Amino acid sequence: MSKVALVTGGSRGIGAAISKALKDAGYTVAANYAGNDDAAKAFTDETGIETFKWSVADYDECAAGIARVREKLGPISVLVNNAGITRDAMFHKMTPQQWKEVIDTNLTGLFNMTHSVWGDMRDAKFGRVVNISSINGQKGQAGQANYSAAKAGDLGFTKALAQEGARAGITVNAICPGYIGTEMVRAIDEKVLNERIIPLIPVGRLGEPEEIARAVVFLASDDAGFITGSTISANGGQYFS
Ligand code: NDP
Fold first, then answer.
1. Is 179 tagged catalytic?
2. Global confidence as pTM
């Protein structure tokens, strides 16, 4: 029987590429999403991958959603914490609400999701957790105090949990993407993209979602069993941590 992989925010952008790549690698994939039913339906129609709606920011919804996935597909062997949001503002204008929403989704979401799969992974003496952080969690970014704090927190979470999971056969790793050509990034004004963003990227282009997805497939594989607590930077050379 194939292993079950759950990808949060798995119906759009980088998450959709991750869901597809895991399916192609032989996993039974469940893709979680928050609210965009049309995108989720189009994704399932295109890929045959089942989607499940709940917010990673809510602990009880995560526990109930994971129980639903478990009942339908079986215990989860691979968890990809990919769901993320931005609520950008310069700090002097940032509202408590903007801070809270980003921390709740991008940081607490990792606790909420991982807590509910951890027991099964420990029982199975096997598990793979891959956290999608960001270059901006490594280097910081003006206008993103909330996002940078959450994404840096994801890296601390990864390292602590890697130590706890090691003896139980569970690896926990993070990937820090740089600028990836998702809808969100391609929506940036072309002039800004070409004159202010791409020149910062030594390889001279945006990354592709599939380039992140292939790194996830590797970290999820048996071949990556000795890699835990690591951060893979996939940013075209923009920042070396
Ligand atoms: P998108 O905005 O394209 O997609 C985000 C996905 O996350 C959607 O499926 C969305 O669901 C889901 N989501 C958002 N909030 C929640 C929530 N509370 N509960 C469950 N699902 C949720 O994002 P990207 O593909 O661009 O980004 C994916 C990850 O990669 C994020 O963590 C982001 O921070 C990180 N990243 C992205 C970079 C980039 O250049 N794009 C660079 C560095 C890091 P729905 O469809 O229902 O809205």
1. no
2. 0.98
Residue 154 has pLDDT above 90, yes or no: yes
Q: What is the DSSP string of 48-108?
A: --EEEE--TT-HHHHHHHHHHHHHHH-SEEEEEE---------GGG--HHHHHHHHIIIII
The residue from 59, 147, 179, 239 that is catalytic is 147
Residues 34-79: tens digit of each pLDDT: 999 999 999 999 999 999 999 999 999 999 999 999 999 999 999 9
Q: Exposed, middle or buried, 192 (CB in 10 Å: 0-12/13-18/19+)?
A: exposed
* CATH architecture of structural domain 4-233: 3-Layer(aba) Sandwich (3.40)
Q: Is 146 in the pocket of ligand 1 (CB under 6 A)?
A: no
